[in-house]
Target: D-lactate dehydrogenase (cytochrome)
Amino acid sequence: MGGVVAADDEEPRHGPSFPKAIEELKEALSSEQVTTDPKQLLAYAQSVLYHEHLQGQPHAVVIHVRSTEDVVKVVHIARKHLVAVVPYAGGTSLEGNVSAPSSGSICVDLSGLNKILEINESDADVVCQAGVTWNDLNEQLKMKGIPLFFPLDPGRNATVGGMIATGCSGTNAMRYGTARGEWILNVTVVLPSGEVIKTRRRARKSSAGFDLTKLFIGAEGTLGIVTEATLRLAPVLPTRVAIARFPDVQTATNAVCDVLNRGPAIQCVELIDELGVKVLNHYNSASSEEREPWPEQVTLFLKLQGCPFSMLPMPASIEQIMRFHGATSYRLSQSECEDEQIWDERRNGLFAALAYKEGSKGWITDVCVPVSRLPELITSAKGYFKELGITAPIAGHVGDGNFHALVLYNPDDPGEVTRAREAVARITKRAIELDGTCTGEHGVGQGKRKWLEEELGQGTVDLMRTIKQTLDPDGLFNPGKVCSSFLALTRLAFGCELLLCIAHSQSQKRTRLRLTLVIPCSDIIKLFFSPLLYAYHAFRVACRVVISGLTISFPVVPMPKRTSGTSTYLWRGVR
Model:
């Protein structure tokens, strides 16, 4: 038996010589790079902030790689023994992005790839390894006196590799965009074949061929493992922080839209709802530096940005717009120290919420809609929470329509867990109905995979699966994430393989099964069969059997794929 399952209800399987794979890893790498300690295996199978329903089983082995070459060695051994490979670095992901398959896998720990390889101040870019955290990168630039920074700012201790894998963003997204913008100039990737590629050169722009860099951004390690990246940097500009309070989300959003349309340079606009402010007050009251409680109103945190000359009139113009739209108060910070104190309050929102209800865990949502639809979505979310009896403070990157609700629940109360799951599902569905997305910045992972087809459509997700199956025909790279869907059923005679593709449609409430036959053949045999294969391709002949909602498609469309010394045809089933 071979390959790895990616469907929700299936058990991943690996080759029978799994212990042999571990022995070969120990031989190929130094002994201290190979970990089989049970506690470590479980720790690496989940993120720091995980939900029980996304908790992975222990890996079979954790490999602490030190170079791209180490990753290549791991991949070759994994391919030989048909073992799943799961990349891991900072462990800060939130949607089960690094959860281990339940039968075990090789966890590739990239945190040791933490070197900044090259700083090009004149070109405003930096070359670094995937295990570098964005905090450390910016701190190193600051220590060297370089007036540049990497502006993407997700959770603390997020690594460059993880940021690329999830297509991250953060509080700065309104001003600087996301990882899917032009901040990642190129990546060095180890493919499932073991081949190493670099997606492009270091030039600021290029129109040479496909944009393969973006292919790996947001792929969550399912298409390849990123080991290095060239990142674009931005100049450090002066900032000022302000707080504005509003009677409701609608008036706050109207003010933000007006500011954005008028053009003042705002780096961040963050929103916290009434409950979120109450949570911050509660958290602050227990700290050693207690402040006066804030009014429990919808609150905007604004970070104004610009050159010293442009900063002079900006605060007054922002205040005028805020008050025009009904702000009950507006206050500009008076010092850099106060700037930090105010922004720390926003950063502490997650930890404050987790401490609000003793014994509770937090289920962090992540959805995004057009900015004008944000009030409607938040109003719907609050209605769901009230109906289900859920406590969930809301914080959002209101400048780009992205918001998070931290759904608090007692993990020992099955009914409360069910209600929390229902609340998250309703919010996600509502976001898609409002022309939004099931995930603004946390990635798909396992937690949002069932919503992907409803958001993007079946054809788009099928195209993703085609790309996945082309690059990773054995389905070994981070199985079960995004849209992975392969299970190799068995190896047949003469090197042939029979694969099963499992595709679940949340919107249509059905599961499709596809059989794929992999036939290695010589060039002579390929020439003999090519006309027949491409005739099938041209006429789109397909045989389908529908049994109780399950559609079984027998493969007919050939997809040529070159392998070393042979030509392999993947016959891919079509609907």
